């Protein structure tokens, strides 16, 4: 055993941990001699990630944040004009796109990404997934993922089932295996039914709260016409706009709930 003063002198001379010095630390491994293979501890494997998909209906209710989302695009003459309205106000949204429409209108999909918005999976042909076989559900998700990645170089991490027709317990693992969280909504003005521009605006402004996920469709002209008043009204209420990933992150990232 060496004294404290001896140990300090050893450090000062640049001498490394000698066999004597190493014995000061009970938890240190023994000094290896030349020719002795070093044995490192083997890390325990991480447990497999669960099959359970991550479902959301709203975001965290702090910071007055909301997520504005548009389904069923891209649509020429509508999606591009909604992008203009968002750009004028420096706001961001999430666009849940149909794969075969991305294939038809790739330039609009690329414009969405280039403007800093999020692009997400809304299946390839927009079917009611709860009526399909497991194989067809996987095909719908995979084909949409593939075409969006091909066109935009972005692989979505969020998915929204058309009509909310999705068997969460049975079909959720299919989304999970594609690394897709399932994003529903908490505000629905039913703009797809063309109830009138003023009705769409009043329902969104009247129902939106901190934490809301708003469902709109960049498919209907009434939605386009309602968008400026919706954006201005929500801004007047001092809501902070974010994308789904900006709101909730990666559904299966290190900080995600499972």
Describe this structure in words.
The chain is of the alpha/beta class and 258 residues long. It contains 10 helices and 8 strands. Strands 2, 3, 4, 7 and 8 form a 5-stranded parallel sheet that branches. α3 (79-89) runs parallel beside α9 and α8 (197-207) runs parallel beside α9 (221-236). The protein is globular. The two termini are 52 Å apart.
What is shown here, in short?
By secondary structure, the chain is an alpha/beta fold.
Name its key features.
3-stranded parallel sheet; 8 strands; 5-stranded parallel sheet; 39% helix; globular; 258 residues
Radius of gyration: 27 Å
* Unreliable spans: 7-48
Structural class: alpha/beta
Number of helices: 10
Strand content: 5-15%
Major pleated sheet: 5 strands, parallel
Task: Tell me the number of strands.
Answer: 8
Helix and strand run:
HHEEHEHHEHEHEHEHEH
Distance between the termini: 52 Å
**Rough shape?**
globular
The helix fraction, in percent, is: 25-40%
Tell me, rounded to a whole number, the average pLDDT: 86
Topology:
Layout (H helix, E strand, L loop, with lengths): L3 H9 L6 H4 L32 E2 L8 E9 L5 H11 L4 E4 L1 H6 L1 H9 L3 E4 L12 H19 L5 E2 L8 H10 L3 E3 L13 H11 L5 E5 L3 H16 L3 E3 L1 H5 L10
Parallel strand pairs: 1-6, 2-3, 2-7, 2-8, 3-4, 5-6
């Amino acid at each position: 055993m060496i004294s404290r003063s001896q140990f300090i002198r050893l450090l000062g001379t640049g001498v490394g941990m000698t066999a004597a010095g190493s014995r000061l630390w009970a938890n240190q491994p023994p000094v290896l001699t030349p020719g002795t293979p070093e044995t490192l501890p083997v890390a325990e494997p991480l447990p497999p990630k669960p099959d359970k998909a991550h479902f959301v209906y709203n975001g965290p209710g702090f910071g007055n944040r909301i997520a504005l989302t548009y389904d069923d695009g891209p649509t020429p003459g509508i999606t591009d004009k909604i992008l203009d309205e968002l750009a004028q106000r420096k706001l961001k949204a999430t666009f849940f796109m149909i794969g075969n429409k991305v294939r038809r209108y790739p330039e609009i999909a690329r414009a969405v990404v280039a403007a800093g918005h999020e692009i997400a999976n809304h299946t390839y042909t927009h079917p009611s997934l709860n009526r399909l076989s497991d194989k067809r559900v996987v095909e719908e998700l995979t084909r949409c993922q593939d075409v969006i990645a091909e066109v935009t170089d972005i692989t979505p991490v969020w998915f929204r089932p058309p009509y909310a027709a999705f068997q969460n317990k049975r079909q959720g693992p299919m989304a999970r295996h594609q690394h897709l969280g399932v994003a529903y909504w908490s505000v629905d003005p039913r703009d797809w039914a063309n109830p009138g521009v003023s009705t769409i605006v009043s329902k969104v402004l009247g129902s939106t709260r901190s934490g809301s996920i708003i469902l709109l469709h960049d498919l209907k002209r009434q939605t386009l016409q309602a968008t400026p008043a919706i954006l201005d009204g929500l801004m007047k209420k001092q809501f902070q706009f974010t994308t789904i990933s900006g709101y909730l992150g990666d559904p299966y990232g290190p900080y995600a709930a499972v």
